Amino acid sequence: MPKIQRALISVSDKSGVVEFARQLTEMGVAILSTGGTMRALQEGGVPVTTVEDYTGFPEMMEGRVKTLHPKIHGALLANRNIPRHLEEAKEHGIELIDLVVVNLYPFQETIAQPDVTLDDAVENIDIGGPTMLRSAAKNFASVAAVCNPDRYDEIIAEMQANSGTVSLETRRQLALEVFAHTGQYDAAIAQYLSRQFAEADSEFPTYFAPWYVKQGSDLRYGENSHQQAAVYAQVDAAEAGLARAEKIHGERDLSFNNYLDLTAALTTARDFDEPTAVIIKHLNPCGLASAATLGQAFQDAWASDPISAFGSVLGFNRLIDAETAQMIGSKEFLFDIIAPRYREESGDEESMIISAFVEALVAPGYEPEALEILRRHKNLRIMQMDQFEATGQPDFDLKKIPGGLVVQDEDVQFVAPGDIQVVTDKQPTEEQLESLLFADKVAKHVKSNAIILVQGKRLVGCGAGQMSRIDSCLIAARKAGQRARGAVLASDAMFPARDGLDAAAATGAVAIVQPGGSRADEEVIAAANEHGLVMVFTGMRHFWH
């Protein structure tokens, strides 16, 4: 590419643009500009020619038309390798433009404002900017197109090192960035207008067009070692989330499964108000507890099922302190404290407790001493998130199916005490009611069919992902052992017949929380009364497939 001689600069985000333009002029580059950008450059002492003077045609219609002109787009689209293009440019007084620096009207920022009107949104749909960028990017063989202010220093450095030129490889990457940027911009407009013009009886847009960008290098592998995988972050997502979280320790890279389990750990932990620790295995909590301190919560959670906790992922909803950090991954903690406690409480003397190995953990943050302790485990992946709590903004839950997606609102609702309906003769105690609400919240994070056994605010038995609710009851009871006696039980969905309720009663639980809504509710309630159980309905199901 010949030396860059002329640049067109027209930006909405003016950060760094004056210094960038000044450095261009120092290398002999002539600057064309418009409107507010032109004024900013002039105030910064940068010599600039107005697009109006260059084209001989005034800005009009309140700036809606200013760069949509053949002298602009001919200067961008002329193929320098086709003599006829250059002849026509000369014939019509078109001076070639070698560098375009444009970023777009802040459409997404505008529609994010709670009081935005449709007229405000429409006025922030950029037309000239995307058109110039696309013209320049199409002609990447001859023109450099810059849409990202973060690129300014890189462009200047390359020009200074290469006699005022930008390499073909850089121009290709800039062009790719432009088409991705304008594609995402148009997708945001289409999705917004789709919502505005949608039929009133649907909250889902006609055109659903989220945009994703790859994060870093590929993952170690996919769900299995023969599969490849990568992480993509959604542009303008309601929260940065795990897709943009930083791994601050751990020699190994994260795998596909690590990200899924970390997501389960994050979304579960932040649903609880008290200090809470959750231990995730294959997306399900095998241990979960809330307590007065995070250390106690972690000890209670690990003692829930230390057999399954081998190779788990941890989630915490509080800053990790030194006391908690000392326990994580500690063989002494596992074999001197947890193993005896588990065997005494559960009565399980046969199952083998293997190791305290933890794959990864996520928390709102880490005390310096705690981080120093955790870093002693070289393979422990420690995740740092800028924002741990959910934003509270509505978002969609997406599931890929062959040929498309199924889309739903996220399940973010909880059962409140006022939602509880006692349906049995026996009434719950205040302590039981508190445990039932806790158990129902845990069940929300367990694969269906889910049966949960809880003592106080501690998971003691989990039956997850079974085809029959009866089987889930059997598994939960087996996991809990002696701890099932006197526990409360949560079912993520209704009991369709009394056989499920009979299986729940057989676990040893004394109180049950379930949504209700079965045709067999009367039969199930009668069975609960026969067993002398407390049973409450919530009216809210938490299926999770």
Provide an overview of this structure.
- The chain has 3 domains: 6-197, 3-Layer(aba) Sandwich (Rossmann fold), CATH 3.40.50; 243-384, Cytidine Deaminase, domain 2 (3-Layer(aba) Sandwich); 417-537, Cytidine Deaminase, domain 2, CATH 3.40.140.20.
- With 545 residues, it is of the alpha/beta class.
- It is built from 19 helices and 21 strands.
- The chain starts with 5 loop residues before the first strand and ends in an 8-residue tail after the last strand.
- The mean pLDDT is 90.
- The strands form 5 sheets. The chain has a 6-stranded mixed sheet with strand order 8-13-12-11-9-10.
Features:
545 residues, alpha/beta, Rossmann fold, Cytidine Deaminase, domain 2, six-stranded mixed beta sheet, 19 helices
Task: Summarize the model shown.
This protein is of the alpha/beta class and 545 residues long. The chain has helices spanning 17-26, 35-43, 51-55, 70-77, 83-91, 107-111, 118-123, 128-138, 152-161, 168-197, 256-269, 294-302, 322-327, 331-346, 368-374, 430-443, 469-480, 498-506, 521-530; strands spanning 6-11, 30-33, 49-50, 99-103, 144-146, 212-214, 232-234, 246-249, 276-281, 284-290, 312-316, 358-363, 381-384, 396-401, 404-409, 421-422, 451-455, 458-463, 488-491, 511-514, 534-537.
Topology, pairings included?
Elements: E1 6-11, H1 17-26, E2 30-33, H2 35-43, E3 49-50, H3 51-55, H4 70-77, H5 83-91, E4 99-103, H6 107-111, H7 118-123, H8 128-138, E5 144-146, H9 152-161, H10 168-197, E6 212-214, E7 232-234, E8 246-249, H11 256-269, E9 276-281, E10 284-290, H12 294-302, E11 312-316, H13 322-327, H14 331-346, E12 358-363, H15 368-374, E13 381-384, E14 396-401, E15 404-409, E16 421-422, H16 430-443, E17 451-455, E18 458-463, H17 469-480, E19 488-491, H18 498-506, E20 511-514, H19 521-530, E21 534-537
Helix pairs in contact: 4-8, 8-10, 17-18, 18-19
